[in-house]
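Ticket opened by: R.M.
Priority: normal
Category: complex prediction / small molecule

The reporter submitted a protein together with iron/sulfur cluster and asked that the result be attached to this ticket for the collaborator who will pick it up next week. Submitted input follows.
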Amino acid sequence: MTDTTETPTPKRTQQAGSGGEGVRPIDSWETDFDHTHPDYAANAPQIWDELRDTCPVARSERFGGMWLPTRHEDIAAIAANENGWYTSHEVVVNQYSADDVMPPPIGGAPPITSDPPFHVDARRLLLAPFAPKKVNELVPFATDFCHSLLDSALAKAADSDGVFDAALDYTQAIPVRVIAEMLGLPAEDGDIFRTFIHHIVENPIERELEEEETAEYYLDRHIAEHAANPKPAGEGDLIDHLLGVELYGEKLAPEHVRGTILLLIVAGIDTTWSSIGSALWHFAQNPDDLKRFRDEPEVRPFAIEEFLRAYAPVTMARRVAEDHELAGCPMKAGDWMLLPFPAANRDPDMFEDADKFIIDRQKNRHGAFGLGIHRCLGSNLARMELTVALDVFVERVNEFELVDPASVRFSTGQIRGPRELPIRVHS
Amino acid sequence: MKINYNRELCQGHNRCYMLAPELFDVDDEGYAVLTATGEIPPELHDKARLCVDNCPEYAIELVD
Ligand code: HEM
Ligand code: SF4
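Result attached by the on-call engineer:
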């Protein structure tokens, strides 16, 4: 038997970063969409589903001109980029033109900002540390850490009528701790990482930063420390690894090392945080799914993939590199092209009952981690963290519910997930 | 039934290895390695179909 539930929508949203003010009202989603608008955060799945029927490649003049495809077919073709019509040089839509440390095809944060042929070489340097068997060595570490978070959260709940914030007290901390461990950066620097992410992903231009506040300053200090204290072969962390590897017979340029470390911090935290949080948000509202997940271990691997499909957190972006036509619309060089993998994951031409959450979905070619050459390098790590976080949560917490659906806050922008998630637990 | 695995299309999503370690292994870079290169025993047919149905890159097919 199969449980099906409509995927619900959040009640309250706020623009990440700027506190919700200042985004111009939307005229029409077909010609004036804005992925940073609170209405988009609140209703994105419905907006995609409508656009797919009425205007499968939507347009907006905002941010200098951008496009939003919603069909799986188009999104997969753009990601595949067979004709070289798109560049990954910038993957987060922004207002200012990037003042890059590294010109194309390398870009500021290789390999995500790199295009072929350089991309594949920069990416290969990172494949081994993120391969499944390597990543699974971190399961005990992640498990212990999740337990320690719940020790504190449940102690807090005991004093406050069973209430704690699953996003702030649990899901947020997990990817931060794990990537700090992998990179060999201090465990207590999570707030620093979040500040970098805030500046890069959520709200690029607030004000000029002081030099000591910048990611470059922080990372250069830690890279220099690593370089001064080399470790024996096989015992190093990811920063040691990047300092040791060679590309085209030479050590990596310092900007490459720094850009990649920053990428690993930025790409892995809000994304995984969102994904674990969305799963808990779903469980809080669907006790039958929670029960099946708890009671039927054989369902769990399917449930993990269904969470990734139904609540895919990441929309990437490209720039159009060459004029061409897509679905009859004129793409012009320089236009932004959003790649909403979450919309592709809801295309009824690709998935049966695409708008339903089916916990043991058997046929699930979801693209939550992207499709094609930029497939999420951290996907094995993200899947491991999601699995461990949910396993530990259902082991420690019996039943739980939302304190109030209206007090859940979802992020806006290209990464979608609950940023505040107050729940009440019953032991 | 046999499995056709196309390394050129594989992007290392690792869905196959997770669903059917009896049929696929994974190399040090995270790409799939087809271990069941011969005739697939009947008790593993369902698992082979699952691999096909969950590979996002269409890198796996079944042949008679
Ligand atoms: C649930 C969590 C995650 C989701 C949904 C996710 C999603 C994605 C997506 C959709 C892409 C494709 C980018 C594109 O086509 O331009 C991507 C790329 C990438 N992700 Fe993730 N990600 C997650 C977690 C992580 C983690 C934990 C890390 C590592 C610490 C990571 C590192 C990367 C890197 C390095 C790339 C660039 C790969 C390349 O350009 O070759 N991600 N991710
Ligand atoms: S599921 Fe497909 S893309 Fe992923 S490792 Fe297996 S064959 Fe490769």
